[in-house]
Amino acid sequence: MAPALxxxxxxxxxxxxxxxxxxxxxxxLGLERITRVGDRHVFFRCGDGVLLIFNxxxxxxxxxxxxxxVPPHGTKGKGHxxxxxxxxxxxxxxxKLETAGVAIEADIRWPNGARSFYFxxxxxxxxxxxxxxxxxxx
Length: 138
Description:
Pfam families: Glyoxalase. This protein is α/β, with parallel strands linked by helices. It has one domain: 2,3-Dihydroxybiphenyl 1,2-Dioxygenase, domain 1. The protein has helices at about 20-30, 55-60, 90-100; strands at about 10-15, 30-35, 40-45, 50-55, 80-85, 105-110, 115-120, 125-130. Strand 7 (about 115-120) and strand 8 (about 125-130) form a beta hairpin.
């Protein structure tokens, strides 16, 4: 039997406009940029993990001769991801986003008592900030 998976190392979202994505995730959310490769991708450090923002028009292409053999990938439509935020920091983050002109789409108190709120990035991806108790973590 294989050992249990330890967690999620990276997650990916897709955006056609990497300049807008880089400005949003770097300036508005304050994530540390790890690298950017042209119009293909921009990667950010996020806690213990990495957030990958890809341009699907580029990542759907097969790798060039001599490049790393990463299989083509991409998606159509808007994705979703959730940021882990301490319960006591949710209001501060919500206010920070609203001050930056980011609309909050929903603020939910879930049946288990945990809270989260939703907003969008410039590509239309659905983003969420939630306290870890939403999934009985911590």
